[in-house]
Specification:
240 residues; globular; 28% strand
Length: 240
């Protein structure tokens, strides 16, 4: 199994880049995280960086099989950090995780950072945003394509850093690693300005994950120009 990957992050038109990402490789496999911090004035940056650091630490110790533990430990540590900093209202983040071993792929998320799964240059599925517009799609009130431009698109229903009575993250069905699989983890500042059909077009043209990401970033920057762009971050993963 051959795995290649690339990541990029940009501040957009904002003073702070509150996105963070992790690409961790050990003899046990690979762990990828993309997180979009919330809270402003750097506090979101602290939150997103913290969950990535915790994921790296947990993955190194436990390996690829316990994706639940990555989310649970990151949530616990983030709550502790909030209390230390007296920043309970300002230090929150989305979190998307993909872990890959020779035998299986585990993936999960909380918030509106997305993970797209492609196979043989076709979009198979994506994570569902924990947002008001996504809920409205589920209820049949709006169409999927309306999420990007909905006035309540930034209203999130679940994030890391809010006290949980039960886990709020969603873990998808495990996948078996196969050739010609691709994953794209990306924050809302990225997917807001590129449609899925363009992701696929770029995927078909690209010869490496770096090229795929470069082509998509060009589209995101062009479509986002003049729109007070948010931070945008993405990680592209290929299994060959």
């Amino acid at each position: 199994m051959n795995i290649s990957y690339a990541s990029s992050t940009f501040p957009g038109d904002r003073d702070y880049n509150e996105d963070s990402f992790l690409s961790k490789e050990t003899d046990k496999g690979y762990c990828f995280v993309v997180a979009d911090g919330l809270g402003g004035h750097g506090k979101g940056e602290v939150a997103s960086a913290l969950v990535c650091d915790v994921a790296a630490e947990f993955f190194s110790a436990a390996g690829v099989d316990d994706i639940y533990g990555i989310f649970d430990t990151a949530q616990e540590r983030l709550i502790e950090k909030q209390k230390e900093e007296h920043a309970e209202d300002a230090m929150k983040t989305t979190m998307n995780v993909v872990s890959i071993s020779d035998k299986k792929i585990l993936w999960g998320h909380v918030g509106d950072t997305r993970t797209y799964y492609f196979k043989k240059n076709k979009l198979i599925s994506r994570t569902k945003d924990h947002s008001v517009p996504q809920m409205m799609v589920s209820m049949g009130e709006i169409k999927e394509k309306d999420i990007r431009y909905h006035p309540d698109r930034n209203r999130l229903l679940k994030v890391m850093g809010i006290e949980w009575n039960r886990p709020q993250y969603v873990i998808e069905e495990p996948l078996k690693p196969e050739k010609k699989q691709a994953f794209l983890l990306c924050t809302d500042g990225f997917w807001e300005y590129i449609e899925e059909k363009d992701m696929i077009k770029c995927l078909k043209k690209a010869k490496t994950p770096e090229m795929w990401l470069e082509q998509m970033n060009a589209i995101v920057k062009k479509n986002g120009e003049g729109h007070n762009m948010d931070n945008f971050t993405a990680t592209a993963i290929w299994i060959g």
